[in-house]
Write a structure and sequence with these properties.
The chain is of the alpha/beta class. The protein contains 25 helices and 21 strands.
Length: 738
């Protein structure tokens, strides 16, 4: 008999097992049984009444009756006859074309009921299949036959006459699997049937009490029923169990990640009352909010311990995460360690360096005239620096002169060596893969695991925090610093009310006349830039064209600056510096200003073609204004109608400044495919049943269970089996690398 860990080549034969491995990396019985059906077909349905028709190129399997069969001839010489059959009528009509018509035209006639399996194409909006696999189910002649790939389904029970046994098809439903041109759904179904016929009862990886308390079916029942149960109630019970399996497996993997670091050596840095951190607290021109003080207290305590801190700090745009990180870095510098701050863009890295030097003043001027006693040095390293500049910064880092090192991906290069790295801060974590922050932490002395603080201004739904960031403890800043002004957001539907856009440009003129500044944001750089976001409606305006149009039109007379990602670094720096200094009135730009850019005098933003941006991205962009003493206005302009899906999304963004509410909305809209497909690993994470949008209670329950069981027995074999679907592949390798 057979178990879950057995390889398939010994059960299915080398050819079938080889195809499963090649197409889906399915190698074991467990791999195959967890390649769950993506849907089920019932009775005569061509596709479900409530389903959207399949997309071009998708491999599907249909069941239906031939309404029409025609023999046609090709136009080219020599002429060849081919057969076209039609199933269904109206929008549910499907045609299938066969080129061996001489053989099939006598068999595939009106009234024949059959299955078709192949790749979908469309011609004049009509769905069609070209030379699909087929299996005749009912025929006026009583003859039952079909393509080779479908014959295997009949339990290999072929009669002496060569006719196909129908035993395997006398069912109310059939599972449909993700498939390819090399490996059809029916091939996979045949393999599943073959494996289930010889499979031993599956041991349950969960304790009986856990299964019983939650009213779940056994693992054996679930893995069989999801493939072959004919009753929907049985399949639903299987889905419920497998959903819990996914949640527990992920949380066990994360528990192993968290507890695994308990034995690692973190750099202890007790807080010093006479150090740089205390000195900064004395000279800061503002008070920390209650939320900042609370988070800083937790971080201060964790940095003093020998266990490496692994903390996610999330907070609204402008909630003051950066000053918390600066105070934490100074605590580490006071203890003799270096700190690295990793930023996603050169603009943001340069701004961090400028703002940190400004807030530290003499505390960051080690070795300089006017520097405070015991001061450190803040170094900046970016890819666009000259070779001589990079060499100088690398020398400062290697010697330990630079206590705080700020940089982009340039920090990750092998040439960058730290003397005593003890703390890594990652800003805007969603812009980085875990491999990248892992490479930076690896620059610490051998045997030392640096503390880690991950920051994001994109609020994270609780389910995502418990899964994608589940190896990190989470702190949240919701309170905005005193004096922050409200941001009013409105949506402009240009097609319906073009005069509103004209009024927006007039309002910018008024703001500039009052001594303030504005942003105008576009989604594309120029015509070479591929469009992004929803593609309905007219093409999105480019930032280059918008800049030219505005400076010769509605904003003529104002000082306009152009900024986008393809400009040389020195030009970007010059434009940003001029805007910050007030020498540019209006910055026409792309999302290069999305994170970190801080110009308190900017009070207005117009986002053109706002439908091309996601919810979180719009919230990030909006956070560039409202940072000074004046009330601010954000206008989201779109050519799409108010009643469209994009229109509803923009109205939702305009309706609230609560980034956490928008994050939940964003998750509902994008679902977890995009959320889990972060740059965290080479391939996206696959959750078939667990939904980050719908299963908070399941995830929370699984997390509590995994934590309690891990504390009792971290070597539990059953739990390790469930976790294997996440830790055993490169899909979620970041759980081990985080």
């Amino acid at each position: 008999m057979v178990g879950l860990t057995d390889r398939l080549d010994g059960i299915l034969g080398g050819k079938a097992a080889g195809l499963l491995d090649e197409v889906f990396a399915i190698r074991t019985v467990d791999d195959l049984l967890r390649h769950y059906p993506r849907k089920y077909i019932h009775g005569m349905s061509v596709w479900g009444e409530d389903e959207v028709p399949p997309e071009e190129g998708e491999h599907i399997t249909l069941v239906g009756e031939i309404d029409k069969a025609e023999v046609r001839w090709t136009n080219r010489q020599p002429k060849r006859e081919y057969l076209v059959i039609t199933l269904g009528k109206g929008r549910r009509k499907v045609t299938a074309t066969f080129f061996n018509a001489k053989y099939l035209k006598k068999e595939l006639v009106e009234g024949v009921r059959l299955m078709l399996s192949g790749e979908v194409g469309f011609f004049k909006s009509n769905m069609q299949l070209t030379h699909p696999d087929f299996l005749v189910l009912e025929s006026p002649k009583g003859r039952v036959f079909g393509s080779k790939s479908l014959k295997a389904i009949a339990d290999s029970s072929t009669s002496q006459s060569g006719e196909l046994s129908m035993a395997a098809f006398e069912r109310d439903f059939f599972p449909i699997y993700a498939a390819s041109s090399k490996l059809q759904s029916w091939d996979i179904y045949a393999c599943v049937q073959q494996v289930l016929a010889v499979l031993d009862p599956i041991p349950d990886p969960l304790p009986k009490g856990v299964v019983r308390q939650r009213g779940l079916v056994s693992e054996d029942e679930a893995l069989r029923a999801i493939h072959v149960a004919e009753k929907e109630a049985e399949r639903e019970a299987a889905r419920e169990r497998l959903t819990f399996d996914e949640a527990v497996g992920m949380q066990w993997a994360l528990a192993g990640r968290r507890h695994g670091e308990l034995s690692e050596s973190g750099p202890p840095a007790p807080y010093r009352d006479d150090g740089l951190a205390a000195a900064l607290m004395q000279r800061m021109p503002f008070e920390l909010t209650a939320g900042q003080r609370e988070v800083l207290g937790v971080v201060t305590e964790e940095l003093a311990a020998t266990k490496p801190m692994n903390r996610l700090l999330q907070g609204e745009v402008g909630s003051g995460k950066t000053i918390v990180s600066v105070l934490a870095m100074l605590q580490m510098v006071d203890a003799g360690y270096q700190c690295a701050l990793l930023a996603p863009t050169e603009v943001l890295a340069a701004q961090h360096a400028q703002s940190i030097r400004a807030v530290l003043g003499p505390l960051a001027m080690a070795g300089q005239l006017g520097g405070a006693e015991g001061a450190t040095r803040v170094a900046l390293l970016t890819g666009s620096m000259s070779a001589a500049q990079k060499r100088q910064v690398r020398d400062e880092v290697a010697s330990g002169e630079a206590g705080i090192v700020i940089g982009t991906h340039a920090l990750l290069q092998d040439a960058v060596e730290f003397k005593q790295l003890g703390f890594v801060v990652v800003d805007e974590q969603h812009r980085f893969g875990v491999e990248q922050r892992d490479r930076l932490r690896a620059k610490a002395p051998q045997g030392l695991t640096p503390h880690l603080l991950v920051m994001t201004a994109t609020p994270i739904p609780r389910t995502v925090a418990l899964t994608v960031y589940g190896d990190l403890e989470t702190s949240t800043l919701r309170e905005l610093p005193r004096g922050r002004q409200p941001i009013t957001t409105n949506t402009i539907f240009i097609t319906d009310k073009p005069q509103w856009l004209a009024r927006a440009w007039a309002r910018i003129n008024e703001e500039v006349g009052a001594g303030r500044q504005a942003y105008v944001v576009a989604s594309r750089i120029d015509e070479d830039d591929k469009p992004t976001g929803e593609q309905a409606g007219p093409p999105a305006e480019t930032v280059v064209a918008l800049y030219e149009r505005l400076r010769h039109g509605a904003l003529a007379g104002l000082r306009l600056g152009l900024m986008h990602g393809r400009l040389p670094a020195d030009e970007k720096d010059a434009v940003m510096a001029a805007f910050r200094a007030g020498d540019i009135d209006v910055l026409v730009c792309t999302t290069v200003i999305e994170v970190g850019v801080d110009v308190p005098n900017a009070t207005m933003m117009v986002v053109m073609d706002a439908d091309r941006f996601g919810i979180s991205q719009l919230h990030q962009l909006r956070g560039r204004i409202g940072r000074g003493a004046h009330a601010s206005l954000c206008l989201l302009a779109t050519k799409l109608p108010e009643g469209s899906k994009a229109g509803a999304r923009l109205t939702a963004v305009a309706g609230t400044l609560d980034g956490f509410a928008l994050a939940d909305l964003d998750l509902q809209e994008r679902r977890e495919g995009d959320v889990l497909g972060l740059n965290q690993s080479g391939r996206p994470i696959t959750l078939r049943f667990l939904s980050l949008a719908d299963h908070l209670d399941v995830i929370t329950d699984a997390r509590e269970l995994a934590q309690s069981m891990y504390a009792r027995n971290p070597d539990d074999k059953g739990m390790a089996i469930l976790a294997g679907q996440f830790t055993g592949t490169d899909r979620i390798d970041y759980l081990d690398k985080a």
